[in-house]
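Exercise 3.2. Students should predict the tertiary structure of the chain below and write it as structure tokens, then compare their answer with the key that follows.

Predict this chain's 3D structure.
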Amino acid sequence: MKKGVILITLFFLTLIFKTLGNNNSISKESSIFLEKIKNYLVSQYIEEVKFLRASTISRPDSKRIYIASDNLLASYALSLLSSPLGEIIKKELEKYNNGFNELHEVILGVKISDRFYERKNEYMGFVFSKKFGVLEIFYEKPDKNKVINDWYNYADLLVYRALNYLLDERFKDAVDIYEKLMKTWDGWGFKDIVAIKSGNYGTYKTALGLLLSKKLEKVDRKITEKYQENIEKMKKILLSLQEEKGGIITDYIIQEGKIIPIGDSNTETSSIVVISFLE
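Answer key:
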């Protein structure tokens, strides 16, 4: 009997590694890491509205659903993780302009404007969930009255601009932006204007840096060769920020050379990390 249980366990582990590790760049450690994120994202699913809630503990997001960017990114991440929920959420997003918000869809390969705006949350109603109680629904959209002119001071906006250039096949421009981004890497994270002011590193920005590195590596491996040590460090940092239930913590600080997670795990950050590992 014990032998049978062991064989079944090994069979399912093999399936997991095949699903998550089709290419050689995904290690066994990364496969287990991604499977735990998958379980976390699935646990956030709300049947009544066919979306995921925003976060686990922190208010108000633990009582909120964001169409964008959370569910836009989660639908893609779950599809990469071979979860049927990816397609279910994507189908529901069709009712909301596919969940596009003139920013985060560039991660999925959809062209966006070259102009960045501050963000605003549009209230879309509420839903009662047996699992989580009453949750409010919001849609993050651009505030066209507030242009971000100093976008080059923000690590995430640098990545979005570079990804946009790649979609236009403006490879040299994308590389120039990448070089600007990597100048803000201090060995532990991207020290942009937000990190300088808050003292915290944004986990999703580290994941975005990894994603852009991998995109550029496909164009020309020489572009990223000199940054390989930094890229490996990004992966290790992300692997260290997983909480017990599988979600990825939103922020971190460094104390005496150690990574200290700060904040809550949430859908957006966890989804971006998945995309950065599997895209």
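Discussion points: Residues 2-278 form one domain. The radius of gyration is 19 Å.
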